[in-house]
Amino acid sequence: MKKDFEITKDMTISSVLKLDEKLSDVFIGFGMFCIFCHMSEEETIAEACQVHGVETDFLVDKLNSTYQKLNKNKK
Q1: Is the pTM of this model over 0.85?
Q2: CA distances (Å), 75 to each of 1, 22, 59, 69, 71, in order?
Q3: What is the mean pLDDT of each run of 10 residues along the chain (75 residues)?
């Protein structure tokens, strides 16, 4: 992982899950089961947050911190 890599609100849900499937737990923790929906291929994090009433920046921060922890454990 590049040090400056960051998950952003403009990324699709599927692109985030391709980084690490374990990030699905973060979405599920927010009640966002859209990870199982075909819309995850095209829907951005921001769009999904709007639909599900989730604070976008908070979710993105949680995804980034989780992703960093997962990558530390891989080393």
Answers
A1: yes
A2: 10, 16, 25, 10, 7
A3: 76 94 95 85 94 96 96 74
